[in-house]
Amino acid sequence: MKKHLTRYVEIVGFSLLLFFTGYGLWMAKLGQEAFMEWLREDGLVENLTALFLLGSSAVGVYRSILNYREKAWKPMLTWSVIAFLFFFGAGEEISWGQRIFEIETPEFFAEKNIQNEMNIHNLVVGGVKVNMLVFSQMLFGVLAIYLLLLRPLAGKMVWINRLLVDFQVPLARWTYVIIWLVFTGIVNMINLVKAGELYEFIFSVMFLVIFLNPYFVVPRK
User: Fold this and answer.
1) Burial bucket for residue 169 (CB in 10 Å: 0-12, 13-18, 19+)
2) Considering 53, 123, 161, 218, which has the largest number of Cβ atoms within 10 A of its Cβ?
3) pLDDT category, 132, cuts 50, 70, 90?
């Protein structure tokens, strides 16, 4: 991707992260009610999160097309999966436009969704909250491996190195990892309901930056 686009997204994204995390700390001092009102459904933070997720999906589509033209099938698969996952994430974030288009909640979601919304992450299946299991606990483990372990493992284990090279997996530069951890640490200071919305915003910004300027593992000699 062009460097000036990456630099622009970095400046805008990191500035928004700095502002929202700082503002979040201030709002948290006003109490739970004020904090929840700020991070309400269809509010600024949620909509920006969806927008950044959609941006990552667009990058995935763009890079998929480039790899398709070069007949690089494995990298094309990687970026196609990224495009799908982040489009799905953007849709889930705004409940697939349910409130925007005033769509009535289907019966299945009305019965199974704890917020009576048309999305998957708020479903309760067999007494288990999908959001807690998949989008919190499992996602935390996947992110830890992705951000902290893959690059070191690629330098030590040949088969991991080969997979990452063959599929052109976009990894985070260490600078981005540090920035991600710093902002996560700041948000972790807020022990209130809805603080997860800020985690999601960090997630959306950082992945767009990573996909625009990824680190690609080089083959081991």
Assistant:
1) buried
2) 53
3) low
